[in-house]
Amino acid sequence: MRMHLRNSKCWNIVLLVSVCSSLAAAESAVKPIGRGLYAYISDNDASANSTFLVGDAGILVVDTGLNRTEGSKLLGAIRRVSGLPVNYIVNTHYHPDHQGGNAVVGPSAVVISTDFTRERTLALQKDPGMKAFHFALADLTFQQQVTLHLEPFTVQIYFPGKAHTSGDALVYFPEQRAISMGDLFLNRSSPAMDDGSVESWIHALDHVLELPLDNVVPGHFELATKSELQRFRDYLNDLYQQVRALKKTNKTLEQVRRDIHMEKYSDFRQYAKYDATFADNAAAIYQQLQAH
Ligand SMILES: [Zn+2]
Description:
Layout: H1 2-21, E1 29-34, E2 37-41, E3 50-54, E4 59-62, H2 68-79, E5 86-90, H3 96-99, H4 102-105, E6 110-114, H5 115-126, E7 140-142, E8 145-150, E9 153-158, E10 170-173, E11 178-180, H6 198-209, E12 215-217, H7 226-248, H8 253-259, H9 278-291
Parallel strand pairs: 4-5, 5-6, 6-7, 11-12
Antiparallel strand pairs: 1-2, 2-3, 3-4, 8-9, 9-10, 10-11
Helix pairs in contact: 6-7, 7-9, 8-9
Zinc ion binds at residues 93, 95, 164, 183, 192.
């Protein structure tokens, strides 16, 4: 049942994605963010952003978009920069909007993810509701971290602790002073929350904020710097502290949903259909605290 719930939630995300795709206005943009490194900001809010690094002999791509269409758009953008083969793909987590383009972007690439992401992708593959997707399972998995040497660069791929899901990966590019955040960071937006941990998510963001960084690639929306990441971290922390305080006074889940004050973040996007509103985030935190 739990598995089924998770999958149907995920499927919900996919359905919403197709609704949102028709609302997409801006054009996908490729921005150079360091030597050999590019951020691909999707024009479809429901399909993830990507990052790609062009080495001497091949390319690494972080996240590949929702499906073949989004993957093709991404590959087209990569090809305008380099004709080298895509040798590696990192999927930050198992949600389809981050890995649905794998087969198009890098049909012979080595796919890298956490052990958890591979397990959850395997479950998606077996779900009849997900038949429309062609997932490429990771070839190489890790639990804590792995360093990729894409000459002349090094790339640090690591599990920062439970956050958006229980097995996200972050991808840090030390030479370029940049990081790909997957859905641990949505720029100016209330995030969807899977079975992760907001408490540990905040710690993970604090750690990222200590790194030397000029560019931060969010899972969705505009390219960012540390200041937008700091604001997102403050949003999560503010909400976490409020929910914890309300819960201590024995407020019910419904009261907590109603009694939080998030006026400071009134410019944040909220998506009710993704369970990604301030109240939904408060409910997720409440349930996580309950489970402790
Ligand atoms: Zn996600």
